[in-house]
Structures are given as C-alpha cells and as structure tokens.
Amino acid sequence: MSTDTPHDAREQLIELAAEFYDQFADGDVPEMSIPTRTKSNIEYDEDSQVWVYGDRTSTRSANSVRGARKLLKAIYTIDFLADQLGEDRSSTLRELYYLSESWDNEEAQFNDQDESNQLVEDLEIVSSVTREDFHMRPEESGATLMGPLELREQTRRGERVIHCQEDVGEGGYQIPNNPDTIEFLDNDADFVLAVETGGMRDRLVENGFDEEYNVIIVHLKGQPARATRRITKRLHDELDLPVTVFTDGDPWSYRIYGSVAYGSIKSAHLSEYLATPEAQFIGIQPTDIVEYDLPTDPLSDSDVNALENELEDPRFQTDYWTEQIELQLEIGKKAEQQALASRGLDFVTDTYLPERLAAMDVL
Fold it and tell me: Any idea which residues are catalytic in this one (predicted)?
C-alpha cells in the first residue's frame, strides 16, 4: 500500500463512491466486498514474512436493512473525507465519530467509535489508501525517537530541519502521525533500538546510550502505533539500519515484538507497509530471568494461555522461541525490563545490552 497526495486520495474515494452510483444505474443492488477480518482469514506469508488477509471476503450489500445502513454510513464518510481532503484539513478518528452526530440522516450516524474506526479501516482496504492519506489521525500516541539522525519534516508552518539529538530535549523527537512526510537527510546511526517502556527509554537516554553506541532509540510506548512501526520500517529499509526490539519478558511483550516484525491481525492489510521482518528480539528472555536471577512476578492463567498460543503462532515457530517459551512455562515467571536495575542502574547500558547486541552481531 503506497502513500498518495491529497488529490490522489480524494480521487480514490470519489471512484469508490462512483462504483456505488454505477451499480444503481445498472439496476444492481449496491454492494462492497472486503476481506473477512477475522483470525481465521489471516495467513502468514512465508515469502514476505508478514500477516496478510486470505481469500475469504464479506459483502456489505444494500439488500438488507443492516447492509444498507453500513453502505449509507460509508457514503457519508466518503463525502466527509473527500471534503476534508479538498480543503487540505485533517481530523481525528474520535472527531469523526462525534461529527457523524451532525449528519442530516440519523441512520448514517455511528453507534460508537469502534464502528467508525472499523469503517475507516474498511475504506483503507477497498481503496488501497491509508488513513494517514485520508488525513485521519488517531489520538496522540506520544511515541518519540532519540538518536544521531537529521531529518526534514513538513509542517503547516513550512519545512523544518531537525537533528534528533542536538535539536531536541530529553524527551526526544515526537514521531508525527504520518512519517512518510519526513525526509531523512543524514545520520551517524549504526542500528535502531525500539524500546517498550518509557522508564527504560529514559534510562538509556540518561546514561547516554544513544551517543555512545550511535543508536536511534525509538520509544514504542507499549503496543506501538502505526506511525511508530512505519518510521521503524523506513529507518531499516531506507537507511539500511538493523532493528532490534527491547521489551519486557512476558507473552504480551513478545506480541509487541511480533507486531513490529511481522504485523498484527488488526492491520493485516498494511503489513507490508508497517512490518519489519528483519527486526531482532532483544527483550528480557526467560534465560535472562534464570541467568541473572531477576526479580519476577508469577505467570497468571492468562499469561500461560497466551504463551501456549504463541507456541502455535507462526510468528514464533523457531527453535529459539520454542526453547524460550517452554522454559518460561517451566519456571512460571515473568520479568520487566526495569528488573535489570537489581544489578545497578548502569547494568543495562554497561553490560546487558552491549553483550546481547554483540552476540547478535549488531555491535
């Protein structure tokens, strides 16, 4: 899925609406087909190493009251988005939900934000245009990066050239909603380190890890937003930088790594646009829990179920992951990144990360 200019994105939306009109004109019942967005219709593409939708589709047809309502809402949303692009404005997903309450047809109004979010995703799929190119923004994710990277970004006040160490504070450079508006100008980076938690990100910056090892530190802020995954992929693809993902040692954090590396089920239509299959896991391993005798919490029932599911997950079908997950189930423990502080505040930057990165041939 490629990015488009506002004009191109608007044209794609208008063409989609025109298809409904042509169906009316031909005496056909209007309908819209999209991939079935369920776990059973997600396939792991071995060639691209990302999640993609399978061949099963669902049809939104006006031959039922429910289907007609969905198409009506789609038409109103297309009209709103086309006007927004024509005026070169933007809005948030939350605003779209509330804006629908002002639409003149009550049947076109959304029942909740989940419904409006899903419709925007449907329009992405059928138009092959990303929501960023619709000028639709999520609520601010606050994700940032810090490191030896100079870039140019487009703003409403014109272009800005920013060095992501010299021109930013301790908080770093905030990743914009659409990272494709950024132009990479220069860098002295050797690799990218994507970090799950804010506390660990702050520890690395305070200890000068980005400067000492010429690393771009990307704060994932938990489950990473699309913009965060997109800029990480661009750093890898365009600057040829290895990507490593540093997370807690629990099944939910392994899935954070999986979403960066292989994509997520929710955004499978964008996997090739967002995912970085070459990304390597450098998070807390069950073997680390044992080797360093880290402070831990016991696995909950949901943790155990998640780990057992990951043993069957194609993203984790390697000898490494099988060994680590089975060990974690055996010891019944999980640990956070900050547990490394039990060895001292500098342990993570002086010992743990350098040793892991060297073993992975990143350093």
Answer: 98
